[in-house]
Amino acid sequence: MDIVYTIWLRTMKRFIRSKSRIVGSISMPIFLLLFLGFGLNAVVTLPGSENYIAFLMPGMVAMSVLFSSVFSGITIIWDKQFGFLKETLVAPVTRLEIMIGQTVGGATTAFIQGIIILVLSLFIGLVVDNPFRFLVAFLFMALIGISFTAFGIAIASRMEDMHGFQLIMNFLIFPVFALSGAFFPITSLPPIMATATMLDPLTYGVEGIRYGLTGSSQIDPFICLVVLCGFTIATTAIGAYLFRKIRI
Amino acid sequence: MTSAIHIEHLTRRFGDLVAVDDISFDIGHGEIFGLLGPNGAGKTTTLSMLATMLEPSAGSATVNGIDITGDPAGVRRSIGIVFQDQSLDEELTSWENMDFHGRLYRIPADVRNPRIDELLRLVELIDRKDDLVKTFSGGMRRRLEIARGLLHHPAVLFLDEPTLGLDPQTRNHLWSYIATLANEKGITIVITTHYMEEADRLCNRIAIIDHGRIIAMDTPARLKERIGGDVVTITAPDPDRVISILSGAGFNADRGGEQVTVSLENAEQQISGLIVRLSENKVAVTAIAIHKPTLEDVFLSFTGQTIRDVEADGKESRRIHHRAMRH
Questions:
Q1: What is the pTM of this model?
Q2: For labeling, which of A122, B87, B307, B314 is most exposed (least CB within 10 Å)?
Q3: So what's the ipTM on this one?
Q4: Domain spans of chain A?
Protein backbone atom coordinates (compact mmCIF):
# COMPACT_ATOMS: atom_id res chain seq x y z
CA MET A 1 0.00 0.00 0.00
CA ASP A 2 2.84 2.40 0.82
CA ILE A 3 4.19 2.07 -2.73
CA VAL A 4 0.75 2.62 -4.26
CA TYR A 5 0.43 5.72 -2.08
CA THR A 6 3.90 6.96 -3.13
CA ILE A 7 3.05 6.75 -6.81
CA TRP A 8 -0.41 8.21 -6.24
CA LEU A 9 1.20 11.12 -4.37
CA ARG A 10 3.50 11.86 -7.27
CA THR A 11 0.60 11.81 -9.74
CA MET A 12 -1.38 14.21 -7.56
CA LYS A 13 1.53 16.64 -7.23
CA ARG A 14 1.99 16.70 -10.97
CA PHE A 15 -1.75 17.08 -11.50
CA ILE A 16 -2.09 20.08 -9.19
CA ARG A 17 0.81 21.79 -10.98
CA SER A 18 -0.56 21.23 -14.47
CA LYS A 19 -3.22 23.92 -14.39
CA SER A 20 -3.28 24.35 -18.15
CA ARG A 21 -3.95 20.64 -18.55
CA ILE A 22 -6.87 20.80 -16.14
CA VAL A 23 -8.38 23.79 -17.91
CA GLY A 24 -7.76 22.15 -21.29
CA SER A 25 -9.43 18.91 -20.43
CA ILE A 26 -12.54 20.33 -18.81
CA SER A 27 -13.08 22.96 -21.48
CA MET A 28 -14.33 20.53 -24.13
CA PRO A 29 -17.16 19.00 -22.08
CA ILE A 30 -18.16 22.45 -20.90
CA PHE A 31 -18.30 23.83 -24.44
CA LEU A 32 -20.32 20.85 -25.60
CA LEU A 33 -22.65 21.21 -22.66
CA LEU A 34 -23.20 24.91 -23.26
CA PHE A 35 -23.34 25.00 -27.05
CA LEU A 36 -25.09 21.74 -27.74
CA GLY A 37 -27.19 22.02 -24.63
CA PHE A 38 -28.49 25.53 -25.08
CA GLY A 39 -28.40 25.32 -28.86
CA LEU A 40 -30.50 22.21 -29.12
CA ASN A 41 -32.58 22.64 -25.99
CA ALA A 42 -35.36 24.42 -27.81
CA VAL A 43 -35.50 22.21 -30.90
CA VAL A 44 -35.00 18.76 -29.36
CA THR A 45 -37.88 17.10 -27.64
CA LEU A 46 -37.03 13.93 -25.79
CA PRO A 47 -39.44 11.17 -24.96
CA GLY A 48 -40.15 11.89 -21.31
CA SER A 49 -40.15 15.29 -19.77
CA GLU A 50 -36.51 16.22 -19.19
CA ASN A 51 -34.88 18.86 -21.33
CA TYR A 52 -31.82 18.25 -23.51
CA ILE A 53 -29.31 20.00 -21.22
CA ALA A 54 -30.26 17.74 -18.35
CA PHE A 55 -29.95 14.77 -20.69
CA LEU A 56 -26.43 15.81 -21.76
CA MET A 57 -25.00 16.38 -18.28
CA PRO A 58 -24.23 12.75 -17.33
CA GLY A 59 -22.56 12.23 -20.70
CA MET A 60 -20.36 15.28 -20.29
CA VAL A 61 -19.30 14.20 -16.80
CA ALA A 62 -18.45 10.77 -18.19
CA MET A 63 -16.59 12.38 -21.09
CA SER A 64 -14.43 14.40 -18.79
CA VAL A 65 -13.57 11.34 -16.70
CA LEU A 66 -13.01 9.18 -19.80
CA PHE A 67 -10.59 11.47 -21.62
CA SER A 68 -8.53 12.44 -18.63
CA SER A 69 -8.22 8.86 -17.40
CA VAL A 70 -7.09 7.50 -20.77
CA PHE A 71 -4.67 10.41 -20.99
CA SER A 72 -3.28 9.72 -17.50
CA GLY A 73 -2.73 6.08 -18.38
CA ILE A 74 -0.97 6.89 -21.61
CA THR A 75 1.36 9.42 -19.97
CA ILE A 76 3.52 6.56 -18.71
CA ILE A 77 4.96 6.71 -22.22
CA TRP A 78 6.38 10.07 -21.22
CA ASP A 79 7.88 8.51 -18.13
CA LYS A 80 9.39 5.94 -20.44
CA GLN A 81 10.74 8.55 -22.85
CA PHE A 82 12.04 10.92 -20.20
CA GLY A 83 13.61 8.07 -18.26
CA PHE A 84 11.67 8.38 -15.05
CA LEU A 85 10.10 4.95 -15.47
CA LYS A 86 13.56 3.39 -15.00
CA GLU A 87 13.83 4.94 -11.56
CA THR A 88 10.59 3.23 -10.58
CA LEU A 89 11.26 -0.08 -12.28
CA VAL A 90 14.73 -0.56 -10.75
CA ALA A 91 13.41 -0.04 -7.22
CA PRO A 92 12.79 -3.13 -5.07
CA VAL A 93 9.03 -3.05 -5.64
CA THR A 94 6.78 -5.20 -7.79
CA ARG A 95 5.43 -4.10 -11.15
CA LEU A 96 1.91 -4.73 -9.88
CA GLU A 97 2.35 -2.17 -7.11
CA ILE A 98 3.59 0.39 -9.63
CA MET A 99 0.74 -0.32 -12.03
CA ILE A 100 -1.91 -0.08 -9.32
CA GLY A 101 -0.37 3.15 -8.05
CA GLN A 102 -0.51 4.62 -11.57
CA THR A 103 -4.10 3.46 -12.01
CA VAL A 104 -5.34 4.84 -8.69
CA GLY A 105 -3.50 8.12 -9.31
CA GLY A 106 -4.86 8.53 -12.85
CA ALA A 107 -8.37 7.59 -11.73
CA THR A 108 -8.24 10.15 -8.93
CA THR A 109 -7.27 12.99 -11.26
CA ALA A 110 -9.99 11.93 -13.71
CA PHE A 111 -12.52 11.75 -10.90
CA ILE A 112 -11.66 15.27 -9.76
CA GLN A 113 -12.16 16.59 -13.28
CA GLY A 114 -15.55 14.88 -13.42
CA ILE A 115 -16.44 16.55 -10.13
CA ILE A 116 -15.50 19.93 -11.60
CA ILE A 117 -17.96 19.38 -14.46
CA LEU A 118 -20.61 18.28 -11.95
CA VAL A 119 -20.13 21.39 -9.87
CA LEU A 120 -20.32 23.61 -12.94
CA SER A 121 -23.49 21.79 -14.00
CA LEU A 122 -25.12 22.95 -10.77
CA PHE A 123 -25.10 26.46 -12.24
CA ILE A 124 -26.96 25.46 -15.38
CA GLY A 125 -29.81 23.54 -13.93
CA LEU A 126 -28.53 20.40 -12.22
CA VAL A 127 -30.58 19.81 -9.09
CA VAL A 128 -29.42 17.65 -6.18
CA ASP A 129 -32.66 16.13 -5.00
CA ASN A 130 -31.23 13.00 -3.39
CA PRO A 131 -27.66 13.14 -1.97
CA PHE A 132 -27.49 9.36 -1.55
CA ARG A 133 -28.24 8.82 -5.23
CA PHE A 134 -25.49 11.32 -6.00
CA LEU A 135 -23.01 8.94 -4.37
CA VAL A 136 -24.08 6.37 -6.96
CA ALA A 137 -22.93 8.80 -9.65
CA PHE A 138 -19.58 9.15 -7.83
CA LEU A 139 -19.21 5.39 -7.77
CA PHE A 140 -19.72 5.16 -11.53
CA MET A 141 -17.30 8.02 -12.15
CA ALA A 142 -14.67 6.21 -10.09
CA LEU A 143 -15.22 2.99 -12.02
CA ILE A 144 -14.89 4.77 -15.38
CA GLY A 145 -11.72 6.42 -14.06
CA ILE A 146 -10.11 3.17 -12.92
CA SER A 147 -11.08 1.09 -15.95
CA PHE A 148 -9.97 3.61 -18.55
CA THR A 149 -6.72 4.56 -16.78
CA ALA A 150 -5.87 0.86 -16.76
CA PHE A 151 -6.91 0.77 -20.42
CA GLY A 152 -4.52 3.66 -21.14
CA ILE A 153 -1.69 1.89 -19.30
CA ALA A 154 -2.34 -1.26 -21.33
CA ILE A 155 -2.05 0.74 -24.56
CA ALA A 156 0.99 2.68 -23.34
CA SER A 157 2.76 -0.54 -22.41
CA ARG A 158 2.73 -1.55 -26.06
CA MET A 159 3.61 1.87 -27.52
CA GLU A 160 7.14 3.11 -28.16
CA ASP A 161 6.42 6.84 -28.14
CA MET A 162 3.63 9.41 -28.25
CA HIS A 163 3.23 9.29 -32.06
CA GLY A 164 0.31 6.89 -31.86
CA PHE A 165 -1.48 8.93 -29.23
CA GLN A 166 -3.63 11.00 -31.60
CA LEU A 167 -4.56 7.87 -33.50
CA ILE A 168 -5.70 6.12 -30.33
CA MET A 169 -7.73 9.14 -29.27
CA ASN A 170 -9.43 9.60 -32.65
CA PHE A 171 -10.11 6.01 -33.60
CA LEU A 172 -10.58 4.32 -30.26
CA ILE A 173 -11.54 6.74 -27.51
CA PHE A 174 -13.70 9.13 -29.48
CA PRO A 175 -15.91 6.31 -30.89
CA VAL A 176 -16.18 4.87 -27.37
CA PHE A 177 -17.45 8.24 -26.27
CA ALA A 178 -19.71 8.98 -29.25
CA LEU A 179 -21.41 5.59 -29.05
CA SER A 180 -22.00 5.78 -25.32
CA GLY A 181 -25.49 7.18 -25.44
CA ALA A 182 -24.21 10.47 -24.10
CA PHE A 183 -25.81 12.51 -26.90
CA PHE A 184 -28.92 10.58 -27.81
CA PRO A 185 -31.43 8.31 -26.13
CA ILE A 186 -30.60 4.72 -27.05
CA THR A 187 -34.20 3.98 -28.08
CA SER A 188 -34.13 6.63 -30.80
CA LEU A 189 -31.09 5.10 -32.55
CA PRO A 190 -31.25 2.83 -35.64
CA PRO A 191 -30.86 -0.86 -34.63
CA ILE A 192 -27.18 -1.22 -35.70
CA MET A 193 -26.12 1.81 -33.71
CA ALA A 194 -28.24 0.77 -30.78
CA THR A 195 -26.44 -2.59 -30.76
CA ALA A 196 -23.05 -0.86 -30.95
CA THR A 197 -24.08 1.35 -28.06
CA MET A 198 -25.03 -1.65 -25.97
CA LEU A 199 -21.57 -3.16 -26.65
CA ASP A 200 -19.79 0.00 -25.56
CA PRO A 201 -18.69 -0.32 -21.90
CA LEU A 202 -18.90 3.45 -21.42
CA THR A 203 -22.67 3.31 -22.08
CA TYR A 204 -23.09 1.58 -18.72
CA GLY A 205 -21.00 4.28 -17.06
CA VAL A 206 -23.04 7.08 -18.62
CA GLU A 207 -26.32 5.44 -17.68
CA GLY A 208 -25.09 4.76 -14.16
CA ILE A 209 -24.20 8.42 -13.74
CA ARG A 210 -27.54 9.37 -15.31
CA TYR A 211 -29.33 7.32 -12.70
CA GLY A 212 -27.30 8.98 -9.95
CA LEU A 213 -28.04 12.50 -11.15
CA THR A 214 -31.64 12.24 -12.34
CA GLY A 215 -33.06 9.12 -10.73
CA SER A 216 -33.96 7.52 -14.03
CA SER A 217 -31.83 5.79 -16.65
CA GLN A 218 -32.26 3.89 -19.90
CA ILE A 219 -30.57 0.77 -18.49
CA ASP A 220 -31.15 -0.71 -15.05
CA PRO A 221 -28.44 0.79 -12.79
CA PHE A 222 -27.69 -2.59 -11.24
CA ILE A 223 -26.91 -4.06 -14.67
CA CYS A 224 -24.76 -0.98 -15.33
CA LEU A 225 -22.83 -1.64 -12.14
CA VAL A 226 -22.24 -5.31 -12.92
CA VAL A 227 -21.08 -4.64 -16.50
CA LEU A 228 -18.82 -1.75 -15.55
CA CYS A 229 -17.28 -3.70 -12.64
CA GLY A 230 -16.56 -6.56 -15.03
CA PHE A 231 -14.97 -4.17 -17.50
CA THR A 232 -12.87 -2.58 -14.74
CA ILE A 233 -11.56 -5.96 -13.58
CA ALA A 234 -10.77 -6.96 -17.16
CA THR A 235 -8.87 -3.78 -18.10
CA THR A 236 -6.97 -3.76 -14.81
CA ALA A 237 -5.90 -7.36 -15.34
CA ILE A 238 -4.85 -6.72 -18.94
CA GLY A 239 -3.08 -3.48 -17.97
CA ALA A 240 -1.19 -5.21 -15.17
CA TYR A 241 -0.20 -8.06 -17.47
CA LEU A 242 1.07 -5.80 -20.25
CA PHE A 243 2.80 -3.43 -17.84
CA ARG A 244 4.71 -6.35 -16.36
CA LYS A 245 6.15 -7.06 -19.78
CA ILE A 246 7.42 -3.52 -20.43
CA ARG A 247 11.05 -3.44 -21.51
CA ILE A 248 13.04 -0.29 -21.21
CA MET B 1 36.32 -12.42 2.12
CA THR B 2 33.46 -12.24 -0.34
CA SER B 3 33.63 -9.75 -3.17
CA ALA B 4 31.24 -6.85 -3.60
CA ILE B 5 30.62 -8.16 -7.10
CA HIS B 6 31.43 -11.59 -8.43
CA ILE B 7 30.89 -12.30 -12.11
CA GLU B 8 31.17 -15.72 -13.73
CA HIS B 9 30.93 -16.32 -17.49
CA LEU B 10 28.31 -13.60 -17.84
CA THR B 11 26.91 -13.43 -21.37
CA ARG B 12 24.14 -11.47 -23.05
CA ARG B 13 22.97 -11.90 -26.61
CA PHE B 14 20.52 -9.77 -28.59
CA GLY B 15 19.58 -12.01 -31.50
CA ASP B 16 22.84 -12.66 -33.33
CA LEU B 17 24.68 -9.86 -31.59
CA VAL B 18 26.74 -10.87 -28.57
CA ALA B 19 26.74 -7.70 -26.48
CA VAL B 20 28.55 -9.21 -23.51
CA ASP B 21 30.70 -12.23 -24.26
CA ASP B 22 31.56 -14.57 -21.40
CA ILE B 23 33.12 -12.17 -18.90
CA SER B 24 34.34 -13.17 -15.43
CA PHE B 25 35.85 -10.99 -12.73
CA ASP B 26 35.57 -9.82 -9.14
CA ILE B 27 35.26 -6.35 -7.64
CA GLY B 28 36.36 -5.91 -4.03
CA HIS B 29 34.53 -4.02 -1.28
CA GLY B 30 35.19 -0.29 -1.31
CA GLU B 31 36.80 -0.37 -4.71
CA ILE B 32 36.22 2.23 -7.41
CA PHE B 33 36.09 0.09 -10.48
CA GLY B 34 36.03 1.47 -14.02
CA LEU B 35 34.53 -0.25 -17.03
CA LEU B 36 36.19 1.41 -19.97
CA GLY B 37 35.37 1.09 -23.60
CA PRO B 38 33.81 2.72 -26.64
CA ASN B 39 30.06 3.06 -27.08
CA GLY B 40 28.44 -0.26 -27.85
CA ALA B 41 31.26 -2.21 -26.19
CA GLY B 42 28.89 -3.81 -23.68
CA LYS B 43 29.39 -1.59 -20.64
CA THR B 44 25.78 -0.58 -20.16
CA THR B 45 24.55 -4.10 -20.92
CA THR B 46 26.85 -5.45 -18.20
CA LEU B 47 25.58 -2.85 -15.78
CA SER B 48 21.95 -3.56 -16.66
CA MET B 49 22.45 -7.23 -15.91
CA LEU B 50 24.13 -6.50 -12.57
CA ALA B 51 21.27 -4.14 -11.71
CA THR B 52 18.75 -6.91 -12.61
CA MET B 53 17.23 -4.78 -15.36
CA LEU B 54 18.22 -7.35 -17.96
CA GLU B 55 18.42 -11.13 -17.70
CA PRO B 56 21.74 -12.70 -18.65
CA SER B 57 21.67 -15.16 -21.55
CA ALA B 58 24.23 -17.29 -19.73
CA GLY B 59 26.51 -17.17 -16.73
CA SER B 60 25.87 -15.80 -13.27
CA ALA B 61 26.81 -12.99 -10.93
CA THR B 62 26.37 -11.93 -7.34
CA VAL B 63 26.15 -8.36 -6.08
CA ASN B 64 26.80 -7.84 -2.39
CA GLY B 65 26.68 -11.63 -2.07
CA ILE B 66 23.20 -11.86 -3.59
CA ASP B 67 22.50 -13.76 -6.79
CA ILE B 68 21.20 -11.49 -9.58
CA THR B 69 18.78 -14.04 -11.00
CA GLY B 70 17.91 -15.79 -7.73
CA ASP B 71 16.93 -12.70 -5.71
CA PRO B 72 16.61 -9.61 -7.92
CA ALA B 73 14.68 -7.68 -5.24
CA GLY B 74 17.52 -8.32 -2.78
CA VAL B 75 20.04 -7.03 -5.30
CA ARG B 76 17.92 -3.97 -5.98
CA ARG B 77 17.80 -3.13 -2.30
CA SER B 78 21.59 -3.16 -2.04
CA ILE B 79 22.44 -1.12 -5.13
CA GLY B 80 22.11 2.47 -6.19
CA ILE B 81 22.18 3.34 -9.85
CA VAL B 82 22.66 6.49 -11.89
CA PHE B 83 21.59 5.84 -15.43
CA GLN B 84 23.27 7.11 -18.56
CA ASP B 85 20.11 9.01 -19.46
CA GLN B 86 18.44 11.26 -16.99
CA SER B 87 15.74 9.62 -14.87
CA LEU B 88 14.39 12.48 -12.75
CA ASP B 89 10.82 13.75 -12.70
CA GLU B 90 11.21 17.29 -14.00
CA GLU B 91 7.81 18.36 -12.74
CA LEU B 92 8.83 17.63 -9.15
CA THR B 93 11.25 19.56 -6.96
CA SER B 94 14.61 18.10 -6.02
CA TRP B 95 13.30 17.36 -2.54
CA GLU B 96 10.24 15.61 -3.94
CA ASN B 97 12.38 13.50 -6.25
CA MET B 98 14.43 12.40 -3.26
CA ASP B 99 11.31 11.85 -1.18
CA PHE B 100 9.73 9.69 -3.89
CA HIS B 101 12.86 7.56 -4.01
CA GLY B 102 13.02 7.24 -0.22
CA ARG B 103 9.41 6.09 -0.04
CA LEU B 104 9.93 3.67 -2.91
CA TYR B 105 12.78 2.08 -0.94
CA ARG B 106 10.58 2.10 2.17
CA ILE B 107 12.83 4.31 4.28
CA PRO B 108 10.76 5.49 7.28
CA ALA B 109 10.09 9.24 7.42
CA ASP B 110 12.16 9.88 10.56
CA VAL B 111 15.23 8.47 8.79
CA ARG B 112 14.30 9.69 5.33
CA ASN B 113 13.92 13.39 5.95
CA PRO B 114 17.23 14.06 7.76
CA ARG B 115 19.02 11.90 5.21
CA ILE B 116 17.58 13.81 2.25
CA ASP B 117 18.64 17.02 3.96
CA GLU B 118 22.16 15.71 4.52
CA LEU B 119 22.55 14.46 0.94
CA LEU B 120 21.19 17.63 -0.64
CA ARG B 121 23.75 19.55 1.41
CA LEU B 122 26.46 17.18 0.27
CA VAL B 123 25.70 17.79 -3.42
CA GLU B 124 25.19 21.51 -2.74
CA LEU B 125 21.58 21.58 -3.82
CA ILE B 126 19.99 22.38 -0.47
CA ASP B 127 19.33 25.98 -1.59
CA ARG B 128 17.39 24.63 -4.54
CA LYS B 129 15.45 21.96 -2.68
CA ASP B 130 12.05 23.45 -3.49
CA ASP B 131 12.80 24.27 -7.12
CA LEU B 132 11.41 22.16 -9.92
CA VAL B 133 14.03 19.95 -11.55
CA LYS B 134 13.16 21.33 -14.98
CA THR B 135 14.90 24.57 -13.96
CA PHE B 136 18.17 22.69 -13.20
CA SER B 137 21.32 22.56 -15.34
CA GLY B 138 22.79 19.27 -16.53
CA GLY B 139 25.38 19.24 -13.78
CA MET B 140 22.84 19.89 -11.07
CA ARG B 141 20.64 17.10 -12.34
CA ARG B 142 23.56 14.71 -12.27
CA ARG B 143 24.42 15.67 -8.72
CA LEU B 144 20.82 15.19 -7.69
CA GLU B 145 20.74 11.76 -9.31
CA ILE B 146 23.90 10.73 -7.48
CA ALA B 147 22.45 11.97 -4.20
CA ARG B 148 19.29 10.02 -4.94
CA GLY B 149 21.28 6.87 -5.70
CA LEU B 150 22.87 7.12 -2.25
CA LEU B 151 19.67 7.76 -0.31
CA HIS B 152 19.00 4.14 0.65
CA HIS B 153 22.67 3.58 1.60
CA PRO B 154 23.51 1.07 -1.12
CA ALA B 155 26.48 -1.27 -0.78
CA VAL B 156 27.28 -0.78 -4.45
CA LEU B 157 26.73 2.34 -6.53
CA PHE B 158 26.60 2.00 -10.32
CA LEU B 159 27.33 5.10 -12.34
CA ASP B 160 26.71 4.75 -16.05
CA GLU B 161 28.60 7.49 -17.87
CA PRO B 162 27.92 9.95 -15.07
CA THR B 163 29.72 12.84 -16.73
CA LEU B 164 28.52 12.36 -20.30
CA GLY B 165 27.51 15.62 -21.92
CA LEU B 166 28.76 17.81 -19.08
CA ASP B 167 31.23 20.65 -19.50
CA PRO B 168 34.81 19.96 -18.33
CA GLN B 169 34.50 22.09 -15.22
CA THR B 170 31.38 20.33 -13.99
CA ARG B 171 32.98 17.03 -14.90
CA ASN B 172 36.04 17.68 -12.75
CA HIS B 173 33.85 18.79 -9.91
CA LEU B 174 31.75 15.64 -10.12
CA TRP B 175 34.70 13.29 -10.22
CA SER B 176 36.38 14.78 -7.18
CA TYR B 177 33.01 14.57 -5.56
CA ILE B 178 32.63 10.87 -6.38
CA ALA B 179 36.13 10.19 -5.03
CA THR B 180 35.28 11.88 -1.75
CA LEU B 181 32.08 9.89 -1.52
CA ALA B 182 33.82 6.56 -2.00
CA ASN B 183 36.29 7.48 0.73
CA GLU B 184 33.77 8.72 3.23
CA LYS B 185 30.98 6.21 2.76
CA GLY B 186 33.16 3.21 1.97
CA ILE B 187 30.82 2.01 -0.75
CA THR B 188 31.86 0.11 -3.83
CA ILE B 189 31.54 2.20 -6.96
CA VAL B 190 31.34 0.83 -10.48
CA ILE B 191 31.70 3.42 -13.21
CA THR B 192 31.39 3.10 -16.95
CA THR B 193 32.99 5.81 -18.99
CA HIS B 194 34.80 6.47 -22.18
CA TYR B 195 36.73 9.41 -20.79
CA MET B 196 40.10 7.75 -20.31
CA GLU B 197 41.81 10.47 -18.30
CA GLU B 198 38.95 10.54 -15.81
CA ALA B 199 39.05 6.81 -15.24
CA ASP B 200 42.80 7.08 -14.81
CA ARG B 201 42.53 9.66 -12.07
CA LEU B 202 39.73 8.08 -10.14
CA CYS B 203 39.59 4.32 -10.44
CA ASN B 204 41.49 1.81 -8.32
CA ARG B 205 41.11 -0.74 -11.05
CA ILE B 206 40.01 -0.70 -14.64
CA ALA B 207 38.64 -3.26 -17.04
CA ILE B 208 38.94 -2.38 -20.69
CA ILE B 209 36.02 -3.84 -22.56
CA ASP B 210 35.65 -4.07 -26.32
CA HIS B 211 33.20 -6.09 -28.41
CA GLY B 212 31.73 -7.50 -25.21
CA ARG B 213 35.01 -8.90 -23.93
CA ILE B 214 37.40 -7.86 -21.20
CA ILE B 215 40.68 -7.31 -22.98
CA ALA B 216 42.70 -6.00 -20.04
CA MET B 217 42.12 -5.49 -16.33
CA ASP B 218 44.49 -3.97 -13.80
CA THR B 219 45.30 -0.79 -11.91
CA PRO B 220 45.73 2.24 -14.21
CA ALA B 221 49.42 2.46 -13.29
CA ARG B 222 50.16 -1.14 -14.14
CA LEU B 223 48.18 -0.95 -17.36
CA LYS B 224 50.30 1.98 -18.45
CA GLU B 225 53.52 0.22 -17.44
CA ARG B 226 52.66 -2.51 -19.91
CA ILE B 227 53.17 -0.02 -22.72
CA GLY B 228 56.83 0.27 -21.74
CA GLY B 229 58.47 3.69 -21.66
CA ASP B 230 57.06 6.85 -23.19
CA VAL B 231 54.81 7.37 -26.16
CA VAL B 232 55.88 9.38 -29.18
CA THR B 233 53.11 10.53 -31.47
CA ILE B 234 54.03 11.49 -35.01
CA THR B 235 51.69 13.32 -37.35
CA ALA B 236 52.69 12.93 -40.98
CA PRO B 237 51.07 13.19 -44.41
CA ASP B 238 52.03 9.59 -45.14
CA PRO B 239 51.81 7.64 -41.89
CA ASP B 240 52.30 4.24 -43.54
CA ARG B 241 55.69 5.24 -44.90
CA VAL B 242 56.71 6.50 -41.45
CA ILE B 243 55.74 3.16 -39.93
CA SER B 244 57.64 1.12 -42.50
CA ILE B 245 60.82 3.20 -42.08
CA LEU B 246 60.69 3.20 -38.28
CA SER B 247 59.84 -0.49 -38.08
CA GLY B 248 62.76 -1.18 -40.38
CA ALA B 249 65.00 0.72 -38.01
CA GLY B 250 63.91 -1.41 -35.05
CA PHE B 251 61.39 1.00 -33.54
CA ASN B 252 58.09 -0.23 -32.17
CA ALA B 253 55.73 1.82 -34.37
CA ASP B 254 51.98 1.48 -34.68
CA ARG B 255 49.23 3.17 -36.60
CA GLY B 256 46.88 5.05 -34.28
CA GLY B 257 44.14 6.57 -36.36
CA GLU B 258 45.71 9.21 -38.63
CA GLN B 259 48.83 9.26 -36.47
CA VAL B 260 51.78 7.01 -35.76
CA THR B 261 52.60 6.09 -32.20
CA VAL B 262 55.98 4.79 -31.13
CA SER B 263 56.68 3.48 -27.67
CA LEU B 264 60.17 4.43 -26.60
CA GLU B 265 62.23 4.12 -23.40
CA ASN B 266 63.68 7.46 -22.28
CA ALA B 267 62.06 9.23 -25.18
CA GLU B 268 63.75 12.59 -24.49
CA GLN B 269 67.18 11.08 -25.22
CA GLN B 270 66.16 8.62 -27.89
CA ILE B 271 64.07 10.89 -30.02
CA SER B 272 66.96 12.46 -31.93
CA GLY B 273 67.81 9.05 -33.38
CA LEU B 274 64.25 8.70 -34.56
CA ILE B 275 64.21 12.12 -36.17
CA VAL B 276 67.54 11.54 -37.88
CA ARG B 277 66.19 8.30 -39.33
CA LEU B 278 63.13 10.07 -40.71
CA SER B 279 65.04 13.00 -42.22
CA GLU B 280 67.61 10.62 -43.83
CA ASN B 281 64.69 9.11 -45.70
CA LYS B 282 63.25 12.55 -46.53
CA VAL B 283 59.89 11.82 -44.92
CA ALA B 284 57.68 14.82 -44.31
CA VAL B 285 56.59 15.14 -40.68
CA THR B 286 54.02 17.65 -39.46
CA ALA B 287 54.41 17.25 -35.72
CA ILE B 288 56.08 15.10 -33.08
CA ALA B 289 54.98 14.89 -29.46
CA ILE B 290 56.28 12.95 -26.48
CA HIS B 291 54.07 12.06 -23.56
CA LYS B 292 53.82 9.63 -20.69
CA PRO B 293 51.52 6.74 -21.59
CA THR B 294 47.84 7.32 -20.94
CA LEU B 295 45.00 4.85 -20.84
CA GLU B 296 44.26 6.04 -24.35
CA ASP B 297 47.58 4.49 -25.38
CA VAL B 298 46.76 1.37 -23.41
CA PHE B 299 43.49 1.06 -25.26
CA LEU B 300 45.31 1.55 -28.54
CA SER B 301 47.89 -1.09 -27.79
CA PHE B 302 45.27 -3.64 -26.81
CA THR B 303 42.80 -3.01 -29.60
CA GLY B 304 44.95 -1.49 -32.35
CA GLN B 305 42.52 1.44 -32.50
CA THR B 306 42.07 4.63 -30.58
CA ILE B 307 38.81 4.90 -28.74
CA ARG B 308 37.80 7.75 -31.05
CA ASP B 309 38.21 5.57 -34.13
CA VAL B 310 36.03 2.93 -32.59
CA GLU B 311 33.42 5.57 -31.83
CA ALA B 312 33.42 6.74 -35.44
CA ASP B 313 33.01 3.17 -36.70
CA GLY B 314 30.58 2.45 -33.95
CA LYS B 315 27.70 4.42 -35.43
CA GLU B 316 26.59 1.66 -37.77
CA SER B 317 26.96 -1.14 -35.27
CA ARG B 318 25.11 0.93 -32.68
CA ARG B 319 22.21 1.21 -35.03
CA ILE B 320 22.19 -2.54 -35.47
CA HIS B 321 22.45 -2.93 -31.73
CA HIS B 322 19.56 -0.56 -31.22
CA ARG B 323 17.42 -2.47 -33.64
CA ALA B 324 18.31 -5.70 -31.89
CA MET B 325 17.27 -4.18 -28.56
CA ARG B 326 13.82 -3.44 -29.90
CA HIS B 327 13.00 -6.98 -30.88
A1: 0.83
A2: A122
A3: 0.90
A4: 2-244
